[in-house]
Amino acid sequence: MLRTLQRPIALLLLTISLVFSSGCSSTQRVQAVEAAPPTTEHLAGVTTLDGRDIEFDSRGAIRGDTVYATAKKQAVAIPVDSVQRWWLKHTDPGKTVLAVLGVAAGVVVALAAIAAATKQSCPFVYSWDGGRYVFEAEPYGGAITRGLERDDYSVLPTLKSDRGAYRLLVTNEVNETQMTNLFELWTVDHATGLRVVPDERGGLHTLSHPVAPSSAVDQAGHDLLPWLAGDDRRVFESLPVADSLGGLRDEIVLTFPRPAGATRAKLVSRTGTGLWGSYMIRAMTELRGGTVNEWYAHVDSVPAAADSIRAWAVREELYGLLVQVEEGSGWEVRGILSGSGPFLAAERVVALDLSGVQGDFVRIRLRPPRGFWALGYFAMDYSADQPLAVDTVAPRSATAFGNSILQAISAADTLYHPMPNTGDRATVEFAAPTPARGRERTVILHSRGWYRLHLDATGPADTAMVRRVLHVPGAAVEYSASQYRQWPMAARHTH
Question: What is the spatial distance between Cα 224 and Cα 121, in angstroms, rounded to a whole number?
């Protein structure tokens, strides 16, 4: 079924996006991570179109139209056209940096093409787990100029205290300039068994009994439950091509059991911007040609212009997905899911008012534009939020290539740490407060910043298309589909 719904896309991008890719790396000693030795990527596993998640014992190899590897000590041969998502392991020579990246699959011509997979926005943030840096966050996606600067909140599950310190590695791995305003940690010590997850605005919520959906179906009645019910490596992601009825949106209805009398709930999800959706940020900005710097200046100086861009992104559901709840009066918008990623979708909570819901079930409807979203999992938690004590920990040191950047990232102000070059990196260290006895700890990174894509701003502006994309409902998704049709070999992989 998913062979037609989720024909993979990302490798159609890879040969062109190769010029944007760069390694992230470190030497063996924590204090020397600002060096940039060569990195290696290898194929570490696949998710297939029928939902099997296969993790390889060692690196896989692509020969012809087949992937060869061993999994659980057994030889496997997997047809390339049965792969829905590639899993790439990215390490440095000392194996002190690790990133496991999920890439929506596509036309595979060589393993080198898979290793070239890259994103189009956001810094990478790595947590020190006591032995290596592990990729854990991609903050402030979509903030492509100072006027769109925003806060981000990322749970860091593998971050460990090492000799009384928490350490982060921040890298620029994209063809853009990244501007970091603030890095601070929130430490939350809480009762065992609770999980703490932020919402989009940094509000913290406790989860004690999240319930998986009892059903998940799309507009054609296909069962999506295997893809959306578990927090695993199965991710639902559609191509930017029309469905059998000519539509460019999926329509997904999730059904959850509802406890008697429940009037409030927390929708928990791991959803992210798809790689194609990330690419379209660049493509739509490039429509402005030589006028793009004037547009940046306008958005930076006129708050109403920035607000208009944010509203457009949500109205068209490109980078904000409306959460509709079925009530007695019909479908009502009760929340918004934000995009993150595209390589690491953040877990988020959306608080829902269920007072208008009738019956023993809660039905949620999502209408993601095709190509823009990667949907990981959903759950519903009906427990009341527990009181939390949150300690804010400012960085005690921060360096980039031997220079202190502490003042630039210690407060949300007019000082920024710029990373203008692919391969730039910085290390940030925090004192690790002693955990409360008998409590579990959740650590959250609160960051703030923006970035500026490196574009060719010399060509003519396509003013008519800019106007159409911004003002005609659905035009942005239509433009995305038209761009996809121009990718090499795209047409033969849309059926």
Answer: 29
Strand order in the sheet with 40-48: 53-55, 40-48, 83-91, 97-104, 133-137, 124-128, 165-171, 425-431, 397-400, 403-404
Residue 332 DSSP SS3: strand
Residue 460 is classified by DSSP as P
Amino acid of residue 455: L
Question: Rounded to whole angstroms, how far apart are CA atoms 169 and 156?
Answer: 12
Token pair 């959250």 is at which residue?
444
Given a contact cutoff of 8 angstroms between Cβ atoms, the answer to whether 147 and 299 are in contact is yes
The residue count of the chain comes to: 495
Give the span between the Cα atoms of 108 and 56, in whole angstroms. Answer: 18
User: Given this model, what pLDDT does residue 86 score?
Assistant: 86
- pLDDT of amino acid 341: 75
H or E segment to which residue 391 belongs:
strand 390-393
Please answer whether residues 480 and 240 qualify as being in contact, where contact means their C-beta atoms are separated by less than 8 angstroms. Answer: yes
Phi, psi of 292 (to 5 degrees): -65, -35
Please check whether residue 125 is in contact with residue 138, taking contact to mean a CB–CB distance below 8 angstroms: yes
The segments of the chain whose pLDDT lies below 70 read 1-39, 106-121, 487-495
- What confidence score (pLDDT) does residue 299 get? 98
Predicted pLDDT at 249: 96
Say what the pLDDT of residue 340 is: 82
Place of tokens 């806060």: 151
- Residue 121: alpha-carbon gap to chain centroid: 10
